[in-house]
């Protein structure tokens, strides 16, 4: 059965922004993240993490170190995440997966039967908003992480500005479809 998805950014959205996070000791999941994901899942959404991790190509940390962090996130969130997708490449590598390119969303769509019309991208950067615009999903920008810093320089406004993932989840479940937000006065 088709399900809508929340394509959620990792750093600054699910967890505190840490420059090139690589050690589990530095991992801080936001206090609202667990409840937000629970609410979204209860409303039928898949939770798909999409994260740019150029620290791997920069050799700041290994893919295995990132995987350890992802395992810890999954453990602390009680297995709430349906899939993790990451881009390990440099920004100028010309890959098809680095946000705002669609590669990670396409990979998730080949693994899950996703109803894109009711899906959302949630993140703290302009590239997250642009990803959602390109994918044709709803878009939410959170003010945690780089949110406040990036807000004045957006190429496109998101459908929803939210304080954090908790508020984002409440607004998403209170909305019948992304289009109804866009058309609201
Ligand atoms: Mg981020
Ligand atoms: Zn890539």
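Q: What amino acid sequence fits the structure above?
A:
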């Amino acid at each position: 059965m088709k399900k809508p998805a929340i394509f959620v950014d990792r750093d600054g959205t699910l967890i505190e922004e840490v420059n090139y996070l690589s050690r589990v000791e530095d991992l801080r999941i936001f206090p609202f993240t667990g409840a937000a994901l629970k609410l979204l899942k209860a409303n039928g959404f898949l939770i798909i993490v999409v994260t740019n991790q150029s620290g791997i190509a920069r050799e700041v940390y290994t893919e295995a170190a990132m995987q350890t962090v992802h395992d810890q996130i999954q453990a602390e969130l009680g297995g709430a995440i349906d899939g993790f997708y990451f881009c390990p490449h440099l920004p100028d590598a010309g890959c098809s997966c680095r946000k705002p390119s669609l590669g990670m969303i396409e990979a998730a769509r080949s693994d899950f039967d996703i109803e894109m019309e009711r899906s959302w991208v949630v993140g703290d950067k302009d590239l997250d908003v642009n990803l959602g615009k390109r994918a044709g999903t709803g878009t939410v920008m959170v003010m945690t992480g780089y949110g406040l810093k990036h807000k004045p320089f957006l190429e496109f406004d998101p459908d929803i500005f939210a304080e954090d993932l908790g508020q984002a989840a409440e607004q998403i479940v209170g909305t019948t479809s992304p289009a109804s937000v866009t058309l609201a006065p």
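Q: And what stands out in the fold?
A: The chain has a mean pLDDT of 94.
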